[in-house]
Task: structure prediction
Amino acid sequence: MAAAVALQGVSKAFGDVYAVRELDLAIRDGEFFSLLGPSGCGKTTTLRMIAGFEFPTEGSLQIHGVEMALQPPNERPVNTVFQSYALFPHMTVEENVGFGLRMKKVGGTEIAERVKRALDMVRLSHRATAAPKQLSGGQQQRVALARALVNEPEVLLLDEPLGALDLKLRQAMQTELKDLQARVGITFVYVTHDQGEALTMSDRIGVMHEGRLLQVGTPQEIYERPTSRFVAGFIGEINLLPATVIDHDSVRLAGGRLVAAATGVAPGSEVTVALRPERLELYGVNEVIPTNLNTVRGRVTRRVYFGDVFFYDIDTTDGVIEVKEENRPGVDLHEIGEEAVVAWDPAASTVVER
Amino acid sequence: MGPGGVDGRGAVSEPGGAAAARSELEDAARRAEARRGFLIALPAWFYLTLFFVIPLGIVAVYSFATRSSTGRTVLSDWNFDSYRRLWDSLVVEIALRTLLLALATTLICLMFAYPLAYYMATRRPALRNVLLILVMIPFWSNFLVRTYAWKVLLGSDGPVSQLSQALGGEPIRLLFTNTAVIIGLVYGFLPFMVLPLYTALERMDWSLVEAARDLYADGWTAFRKVTWPLSIPGVVAGSILVFIPTLGAYVTPAILGGAKTTLAGDYIVSQFLAARNQPFGSALSMGMMLIMLAATIVYFRWFRPSGRDL
Ligand SMILES: Nc1ncnc2c1ncn2[C@@H]1O[C@H](COP(=O)(O)OP(=O)(O)OP(=O)(O)O)[C@@H](O)[C@H]1O
Ligand SMILES: [Mg+2]
Result:
């Protein structure tokens, strides 16, 4: 079966600035796909090309196997939820929701029914005749969703739809969106710069940086197996230790310590060992440490209490390493100034380029 | 409010004394605010009273006065004679012609100005400012001078006519026709239509148009359903700014129009000067102001429904 959205070699230049470069991406039918990346990396531009608001400078864009790169937006089976909602201020909520169906010349009674169902779905039937600006941000957001979903698009595009909401509401809407997507089974392409949002909601994530798509994978793959230094550093907390490759399963850290790590690049290459703080353990200098673990010795320079966890900074000859330890019985506390050993399973580290 | 008690929800309300004291303070503050506002507006009040309210009052009073056989205005024997004369067929004809001309001018201005304002509002910000300045350049020279320039352009040996003859046609004499008056008026008032339209379109949230396109509207439909209704405030403002002054236009018709195309402004002037009938001239003026007021109200009412909540 053809991908819901397939981009091949898509580039977009504004003048001589490339917003998107040589993008290859296949979004599967029915999946919740997130485009994640820092501001200005080209997420919105990519989404707008799928919607038809921008045309690619180069490349092919197919929606369910049909070439669409140069089709105008009204001829594409996709709908968009805008970041600013873009609700029509001169129409009521139900007129807003029914707009697409009226444009498609759907019959009056069917429009009324479908609009009602869509408003039920976002729990806003009681505000059907309100003007958009009489609604709260979260309600406007839901109207925007209903207005797009009522058309039963093949793909729903969402550009930071929760960006304007406060934290609490954002979290509630995240769950709601995810549930909704599972229920309607429509492919969602979701743009965000919030890594937490991307990790919790997505089936797969594409990480973008400076117009390029660096990595595509499940949240777990992205978090645990980053293939580039940028992806490793962008998502979550991480220690990035410079090292030199010795052979296919060991590297030498900058301080001279030899540690085990699967490398996959030529001996002598300069690389970075990426270590998640929560995958590290702290041992006292006199404790017995399992021999299969990598170890680096250092001194505790900082300890921050977060309630459920402690963050430690350990100053070692290989650099400062951040360790996250759970706050529960059986996990020893370490004091500032103490010597300690940082230990990790070689499988927990990832080697990326320098 | 009564002295301290318990309101419906069970919360204890403030003791009456404190509330009264506070509201006294609030009142004092409000009075001071009003006084300041009045002082700031005083020069404008003074100016408007001296040059607008008083003359208007004089016109209103004169419209009920009598003209003596020598052409003097007699401030006694108050009557409605001048108003009765407003229904003379000549006056009605002039009024209708003036209305029609003002309407045509407004419509033509709208037709020219909307695309221009749309173009301007969708350019890069830097270019927008340049275009704005270009639109205002005509204001740099005197209106009368520019109208005389049109007289040259539209005359029987002017460039328009010459061009027509060069192409093998008849000489065209536009001068002293209604067409010439409309051309002159459109030229003179176009900027007044462009500026409010530009302001309305420049404030447009273009993502709304994208949303319409996204919801299967083609370009034209998106314009009709979104851009146009949202620009109505600009259309109303521009139309009023053009319609009202063209109703009372005097200079342009006087220079470019002919004797057969007398308009209201011209007719009123002739009553005051040539005919020396100040009461009738005053009644005409009052009648015209009423028409303008009515037109403005109708216009606002008419456009309110689709332009609501803006
Ligand atoms: N219409 C445009 N004209 C010129 N440059 C543009 C235009 N749209 C986007 N760009 C540029 O393209 C690059 C990518 O922009 P884009 O809006 O896609 O980023 P983004 O990833 O969505 O960022 P954000 O998280 O800030 O929304 C930016 O450098 C931006 O300045
Ligand atoms: Mg963006």
The longest strand of chain B covers residues 66-67. The two ends of chain B are 38 Å apart (CA to CA). Chain B has a mean pLDDT of 87. The beta strands of chain B are 66-67, 73-74.
